Amino acid sequence: MPVPDFRAIVFDAYGTLFDVHSVASLAEQLFPGRGEALSMLWRQKQLEYSWLRAMSRRYKPFRDITRDALIFSCERLAIALDETSLQRLMNQYSSLSAFPENLQTLRLLRQAGVPLGILSNGNREMIEVSVRSAGMTGLFDHILSSETVQTFKTQDPIYALAPEAFACRPEQILFVSSNGWDAIGARWYGFTSFWINRAGLPLDRLDAAPQHQGSLLSDILPLVLPASSQ
Amino acid sequence: MPVPDFRAIVFDAYGTLFDVHSVASLAEQLFPGRGEALSMLWRQKQLEYSWLRAMSRRYKPFRDITRDALIFSCERLAIALDETSLQRLMNQYSSLSAFPENLQTLRLLRQAGVPLGILSNGNREMIEVSVRSAGMTGLFDHILSSETVQTFKTQDPIYALAPEAFACRPEQILFVSSNGWDAIGARWYGFTSFWINRAGLPLDRLDAAPQHQGSLLSDILPLVLPASSQ
């Protein structure tokens, strides 16, 4: 296989770089037996609200959308959410850990001189707090946020931040996401797309497939680094 | 309350005019114990695919999206879907019934001379088959489909079909939907919006509320008709 000439590797944040599992754990701790249902609906509504707002040009910072989605999900599931529990759940987003293989993978890429970025629906402060919390300070050349363009994935303007920041063509960027819909959106946009399919899910049926697929972030290394440096 | 001067009443199709319950029933019959999980995921994916395609300008007819969503949902739930079961489930969309109060409500409005329309994500043939199947032939002045504009709700161009067809301003249209997100999208667009909240769900937290709410389609009558004609 020829080595592709990537000018940068750009990562999705939540679920890809940062493990949001601790959010579900806390939900289960606060509401025993309901944690999984709550965290699943919360995530679904967080995405749904971002898509509806993107379609109708009603941008609102992702942190606020995340809060709205949590409050709705508790109402929907008849879970009594007091202010303390709400704050504790929201604060989990400020102390996310990285998946075990992530830091080493990012450091190897950094050592090899590959420009790295984050492109996320999150607002800038949210992402920067997560970067610090996960010990990733200084690893990224660009942190690209929905805040700049006031819309969300999969709309073109947010993906377009990456080729603009790295001054290259979309296909020269390897875009890495653990969210299947995001990996497909990235492919639609024109990136070279890598789906980190951590959960072994089937691919969404949207008539497009990411060019690459793996189950861990480190699975991108053979594609990017010469064999000797891994 | 002053009687609003509506120039037309425009209805969403699936779940609002047409009862999709029979789809879930058949799913349960084909896959005992899995029917509810399948029909819920199928619906969720059908909407998700429509939103992602709308955002990324990748229109595909709603019938095909519905089929894609069914195939994905079965894969995701590890349900073996043979061609016969797939066809039977898809064919349910051609024989949907109306909710019990719908026909009478539509006839009363029609008798009172209120212009009526349908505005749906469905493709034209799909909607027309459902209209015939539910005994609603001849009740509507306009059947407005995503096919014309090649995008889906909640994007402006599909909602814009209604004021164009009825030659009036958006707020002069009473838009009726049982889907909370659609009722909110309609409000965002500028319609006067009526949410038929059949399941008694909480309203989605999107910083906008439909102006009116009820639990049956007939709940729109007091708003539109003089008391004597009901």
What would you say about this model in short?
Two copies of one chain form a homodimer. Chain A is α/β, with parallel strands linked by helices and 230 residues long.
Describe this structure in words.
The structure is a homodimer of 230-residue chains. Chain A is an alpha/beta fold and 230 residues long. Chain A has two domains: 8-19 and 96-229, HAD superfamily/HAD-like (Rossmann fold, 3-Layer(aba) Sandwich); 20-93, DNA polymerase, domain 1. The first copy, chain A, contains eleven helices and eight strands. In chain A, strands 5-4-1-6-7-8 form a six-stranded parallel beta sheet, sandwiched between helices. The longest helix of chain A has 21 residues, at 35-55. At the A-B interface, helix 2, helix 3 and helix 10 of A face helix 2, helix 3 and helix 10 of B.
